[in-house]
TrEMBL record:
SMART domains: THN. It comes from the Eukaryota. Disulfide bonds join 36-250, 84-95, 100-107, 161-240, 166-223, 174-186, 190-199, 200-210. This is Thaumatin-like protein 1b. It comes from Brassica carinata (Ethiopian mustard).
Length: 255
């Protein structure tokens, strides 16, 4: 039967197409590695219309890792929560940075409260051909910064497939007016001041009106491939096709 199929041009093409279709429709494996010297609690938020990927928050000890399968057309973000604990009286779970306000380890559809470093993905977007759908990914400092983070693509093609992220310790470089708490995170200018020119809102809600600020330039000079403000697309969004991704928290060396 197999020999007959392989000698039929139509059947052979169908087999090849089916293989490519299912391979291209698999989505992407996303692995989070914690190289920080402390435990973190990653949060995951799927964008509206995207299915969940098994959890919305979990504990990850120093040196630990965990992988997820993001299906085709999935979009969402990952971040690290730090300084987390359970209240001994109420049992509520809260975090010093990146808290999602759920009072639980699971974020349950809530995003990170700024400031927090974000890894953002759109898996399998683009042409109708399932073997050529591109992924888009970035590391964003638009909501501020709490831990160093790098995203690496592996096994992909058709796109830049470059490593992106922020290896620098921006908490050490953070201007006093952006400093969060005792220096555990660094706010964005939008979060710190709330003005339209920093938030790219109101009259500034377009690339022609909203320009880099002295504060976003501090982020950009330290982390050139990361999003530093809302319209920083050109140097901060990367593409790849049929790749898997590794998010490394507190990477030791630039890539």
């Amino acid at each position: 039967m197999i020999i007959t199929l392989l000698h039929s041009p139509v059947s052979f093409c169908f087999i090849i197409f089916s293989f490519l279709f299912f391979y291209g429709s698999n989505g992407a494996k996303v692995t989070i590695i914690n190289r920080c010297s402390f435990t973190v609690w990653p949060g995951i938020l799927a964008n509206s219309g995207s299915s969940g990927i098994g959890t919305t928050g979990f504990e990850l000890a120093s040196g630990g890792s965990r992988s997820f399968q993001a299906p085709q057309s999935w979009s969402g973000r990952f971040w690290a929560r730090t300084g987390c604990n359970f209240d001994s009286q109420t049992g509520q779970f809260t975090c010093l940075t990146g808290d999602c306000g759920s009072n639980q380890v699971e974020c349950n559809g809530s995003g990170a409260k700024p400031p927090a470093t974000l890894a953002e993905f759109t898996i399998g977007s683009g042409p109708e051909d399932p073997t050529r759908k591109q992924d888009f990914y970035d590391v964003s400092l638009v909501d501020g910064y709490n831990v160093p983070m790098v995203v690496e693509a592996s096994g992909g093609s058709e796109g830049d497939c470059l490593t992106t992220g922020c290896v620098a310790d921006l908490n050490q470089r953070c201007p006093a007016e952006l400093r969060f708490g005792s220096g555990s995170a660094c706010k964005s200018a939008c979060e710190a001041f709330g003005s339209p020119e920093y938030c790219c809102s109101g009259a500034y809600a377009s690339p022609t009106e909203c320009k880099p600020s002295m504060y976003s330039e501090i982020f950009k000079s330290a982390c050139p491939r990361s999003y530093s403000y809302a319209f920083d697309d050109a140097t901060s969004t990367f593409t790849c096709t049929s790749a898997d991704y590794t998010i490394t928290l507190c990477p030791s060396l630039p890539r």
